[in-house]
Amino acid sequence: MRTREGFTLIELLVVIAIIALLMAILMPALSKARDQARTLRCRANLKQYGIALRMYLDDNSYKFPDAWTWLKSEGHQYVRKGEIPDGVLWAYLKALDVHMCPKFNMLAKGTTWQDTAVSYVMNSYVGRGGEIWSNWLGSGVKGVTKETEVYSPSQVIVFTEENPWTIEGYSIAPFNDTHFTVGHAQRQIDNYATFHNPPGDLDRGGANIVFVDGHVELLRRLDDLDAGFRLAWPKRELPYTPTKGMSAGGS
Question: What is the Cα–Cα distance from 92 to 53, expressed in whole angstroms?
Fold first, then answer.
């Protein structure tokens, strides 16, 4: 009796079609899993930031590092690849891979910021002797210098992320330096990243943030720009009167 060998062309085409169908089903799930892994890696990086900040505060009479020089001693431009950071917090974070979010690194390719070695930024309203960038909040308005001056350490951020692009109605400045100066509803400046776990739109995702007490959260995009400012402003009283929905005394 003659035995059958191999497959017919139709059978091969059926197998190929089944494999293609399975790949079409699995690829989105695999892509989402890779994206979530990048977010988790970034969150782990920022947990190290929280630990390093705690050590720095304990060693420096609870004074915050300077948002201009926390990683780069001269100026406040971002740290480029090939440069060795020499700022005050570098001694507590001497591992370059902990300073780069893999998601940011992927998104920054082909942009002005593709040469950065650090993708995280520091809240400019803490440290610097309380001085505010450009005095944009008004003459005489100051932030804080020490941890003990922060009204609620579990509700005020120290480190976060920015997008390498701007979003109309949300931000007017992309990632471009070492500090984070978030605006509010009456004036847009910097704003939190939106590229983590986006619902199909990179402008609608979130950012990892480190609070003064050291804990890390994923912050979903806040369309209420006053609420975004409240997260960064370290004092109980706001330095301006919100246009709606929030008292000047904070939440």
Answer: 8
The CA-based angle 206-208-210, given to 5 degrees, is 145
**Residue pair 231/125 in contact by the 8 Å Cβ criterion:** no
Residue with tokens 């035995």: 3
Distance of CA 198 to the CA centre of its chain: 14
- pLDDT tens digits, 195-240: 999 988 999 999 999 999 999 999 999 999 999 999 999 999 999 9
Could you tell me if 161 and 121 are in contact, meaning their C-beta atoms sit under 8 angstroms apart? yes
Please check whether residue 191 is in contact with residue 182, taking contact to mean a CB–CB distance below 8 angstroms. Answer: yes
Strands 179-180, 216-220: pairing kind: unpaired
Amino acid occupying residue 220:
R
pLDDT tens sequence across 27-73: 665 556 676 777 789 999 999 999 999 999 999 999 999 999 999 88
Write the CA distances from 208 to 50, 160, 177, integer angstroms: 12, 6, 18
Nearest CA-CA partner of 81 in 51, 55, 54, 115: 115
How far is 229 from 82, CA to CA, in rounded Å? 34
Sequence-ordered list of residues with C-beta below 8 angstroms from that of 209, at least 6 positions apart, any chain: 46, 157, 159, 160, 161, 192, 216, 217, 218, 219, 231
Q: Compute the CA torsion angle 26, 40, 168, 199 (nearest 10 deg).
A: 30
**CB 158 within 8 Å of CB 53:** yes
- Model's pTM, two decimal places? 0.84
